[in-house]
Each structure stands twice: as structure tokens, then as C-alpha cells.
């Protein structure tokens, strides 16, 4: 389904702007980095109610395509995302790989899904950006068949994921305009509080909610680290608009701050996340 990308809130603007462009540019690196999470979701689909799957906040489509490959001719995986640029990348991958995948460019919080049209709903880091999470998960519940499973991964707190904030802590003295994170607002760490996630799912009509901490080893090549930190996150975004001298200073300072994670040619860190599952049950 081809519609114009929504740009009616801050997250839509971000993912259709700098963040979306960075994720497309870094698609290969990010997919390698977060492959362990894709494997966990694919495994869950293989054990769950097969058929029609929905990948929420599917981005450039790696997880959507992996699930579509698993389902083969017996099923179908649909990715939904608010970012036109990321979906364009997802669609061209799907054309190359041609499994049973399709994509919707829309806000998953409000999109008019066909009721009871998905047997499984998954997401890799794509559900922490809604401005009304209860409304969003209630919308997804309506899109799910009775007995469908919801399964997603989301980040625990920034404090438990120091790798993710190393760049901004190191760069802050050099970048007075660097926006501070707002842990309560939609964004990477919005689902840090598992009690809040439980309440969101309960109030939006999901049952048998299970939220488990998972600690997942992630790696990237040391030679990719500068590219990573100059593109992604708040520092990556602000560096797109920073003068060359400050930029060089920031890169030097931030790179040193990552030393504890560098082991010869490899960068290693642990991602502290939640594996969340819930079931759609008839009322
Ligand atoms: C951190 S990225 C994860 C992308 C992808 N799941 C992956 O693992 O590569 C978050 C994704 O959620 C999408 N997103 C944010 N808010 C959304 C919304 N309201 N509806 C649909 N997608 C949304 C973004 O455009 C982005 O592609």
C-alpha cells in the first residue's frame, strides 16, 4: 500500500528525516548488529501461530523478510512503518529477495488494519515511539486474530545500556545544544519500566503478558565505530549540522570514550532489553 509518509508528530518527522536517513545508510551494519534479536523473533514465530505476521516499525525490513522467508508459501509477513525512506529500502530488498512480504507506510497507532487479520505481531525495537501507546496496542489488538501472539523486543533503561549513551556523555561538554534524553517521552528508552509496559498491554486488551529481561551480546567491527557514532543517536544527528572543527574534536573525544568496548578489531557490548510477549484472547 503506497501512501504518503505521515509527518504529523515529532517521531514521524524524525524517522522521515535525519534518523530515517541514518538507518537507511547504516542498514547493513545495524542488521548485523541486531541480528541476534531478529533470530529470537524468527524463532518465536516458528513456534507460534504461523500464518499472517505483522512486523511493527519494520524499518528497512530485515526482520519482515526473515519472517517471510520462514513462513514461505504458507504465510505472509507485512511490515508497517512510518518512515517513507526506510520503507523504500525495505521494498527494494523485498524485490531482490522476493519472499512473501509486503509493506504499509502508516502510523501503526492509528492505521485502519483489517480487523482480525494477523496471527502473530512482532517488532524489533519498533514500538517505543507511539505518542499514545495504549491506543496503539489496542489498535494492534484489533488487527490480531483471537489467539494471536504479540512478541517484541524493547530496550531496558539507559543506565543498563551504557554503550548507547557513551557518545552523548562524552560529547556533551563540546555540544551545548545537544538535546537531553527525555526518558518518559516516546523514544529508545520509553519502555524501560516493565511495570508501565505491563499496564499499557493490559489496558489495551492483551492477556497473558510476559516480560523477561534478556542480555544480548552485540558486536561490530572497530573500523565501523566512527561511522556508527557519527550517524546514529543524538550525537550522530547533531553532527550533521556541526562545523568541521567541532565535529573533529567531538569524534576524537567520543572515540576515546568507547575504548572500554574495543577488543582489538571488535567492539563488544551487551544490550539490556525486554523480551515481551502477550496473547490475544476473546473477551
Ligand atoms: C529503532 S527503528 C527499528 C527498525 C527495525 N524494526 C529494525 O529493527 O531494523 C524504529 C522504527 O520504528 C518506526 N516507527 C516509529 N514510530 C512508528 C509508528 N508510530 N508507526 C510505525 N512505525 C513507527 C521508525 O520509522 C523506525 O523504522
Write the layout of secondary structure elements.
Blueprint: H1 10-15, H2 18-25, H3 27-33, H4 35-47, E1 52-56, H5 62-71, E2 76-81, H6 84-97, E3 101-105, E4 118-124, H7 133-143, E5 144-155, H8 162-171, H9 194-203, E6 207-221, H10 225-231, H11 233-239, H12 244-257, E7 262-263, E8 266-279
Parallel strand pairs: 1-2, 1-4, 2-3, 4-5
Antiparallel strand pairs: 5-8, 6-8, 7-8
Helix pairs in contact: 2-6, 4-5, 8-12, 10-11
Bound molecules: S-adenosylmethionine (SAM).
What's the gist of this structure?
This protein is α/β, with parallel strands linked by helices. 41% of the residues lie in helices and 23% in strands. The longest helix is centred in the first third of the chain and has 14 residues, at 84-97.
Mind explaining what this structure looks like?
With 283 residues, the protein is of the alpha/beta class. Helices cover 41% and strands 23% of the residues. It is built from twelve helices and eight strands. The chain is globular. The model has no long low-confidence stretch (mean pLDDT 94). S-adenosylmethionine binds next to helix 1, helix 5 and strand 2.
